[in-house]
Amino acid sequence: MDSRFDDLQEDILEDNLEIYSKTAVDHFMNPRNLGEMEDYDGFARSTGPCGDSISIWIKVKDNIISEISFTTDGCGPSISSASMVTALAKGKTIEEARKIGQWDVLNALEGLPEEKEHCSLLAATSLMKAMEDFSASKN
Ligand code: FES
Question: What is the pTM of this model?
Fold first, then answer.
């Protein structure tokens, strides 16, 4: 993640931050729910066409996503997107969280540059697959 951090630092230094919303920058600088989870109920790692991956772990209690975490080897916006999707899903029932899609992540981040919108799809897909893994392991 260090080189990605350097990329964003470069953007800051080059004064390119105006292309990202304050919310997107905040979720990059202070990612919510970052890290691997050892004791989990659902897990998925999805890789996008760009070659980057987002991993998501969920812990489910009484049908509610009580804990969630992520890691990524992707770009800055993938960190913002994964952080946001975990923040959106935490505390939701599985049924509610299934409705979280790419556009919910994008809207919550107040948008991403067009060429980075796919990072939010990768985050939403990883969440969906982690929930599928949970459902499959239950049955
Ligand atoms: Fe690959 Fe952002 S460029 S996830």
Answer: 0.90
- The domain defined by 2-138 folds into Sufe protein. Chain: A (3.90.1010)
- In the block, tokens 């812990």 appear at 59
Q: Is 50 a catalytic residue?
A: yes
Q: At what angle do helices 76-89 and 117-138 cross, to 10 degrees?
A: 40
pLDDT digits (tens, 9 = 90+) for 82-126: 999 999 999 999 999 999 999 999 999 999 999 999 999 999 999
- DSSP reduced 3-state for 66: strand
Q: Annotated catalytic, 75?
A: no
Question: Could you tell me if 42 and 133 are in contact, meaning their C-beta atoms sit under 8 angstroms apart?
Answer: yes
Separation of alpha carbons 129 and 122, rounded Å: 10
Catalytic residue among 35, 50, 66, 107: 50
